[in-house]
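Hi P.,

Sorry for the delay on this. The queue was packed all week, but I finally got your sequence through. Input first:
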Amino acid sequence: MYKKTIKYKDYSDNPQEITETFYFELSMIELIENGWAEGVLQEELNRCVDNNQLADMVKLLKKLIKASYGVRTADRKSFIKDEKATERFMRSNAYNAMIEEVLNDSTGHVIEKFIIGILPQTINGQTVDYNEIVKQARKEAYEIYSLPEEGNGEGEDVINNNTEE
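Then the structure:
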């Protein structure tokens, strides 16, 4: 499960800053239902990056958010995915702030963290170490594109969208 804290302004006449936590997760069944199993999601991401297609990246991110957004119950025993709640989130400034953060991240760390966070942590009873997979993919990208090595992209995952209108 991916937990994302987002700061954004509401739609009131006198916009107020709100800090809210949102949750995202995909099960193995949802990966299969969306056609993202067996490396297909990675292929889609690679195609967006290789072709430098920002519009395709946004479309894929939107599909991932729509498929993974949900509300964790107070007792933390269930994760409810509801079309109305998802639609409400995707029409909020929190959603806009989340998309903007991904688009403004030239390192790709933000989308990596999101995707790693929403994917199932075990497959066929085996724990999957996505960090190792991403580390290898990043190493290959740095070699291909001769990019300078950067940090590991870790840190507090908080979006701050405080732009004044």
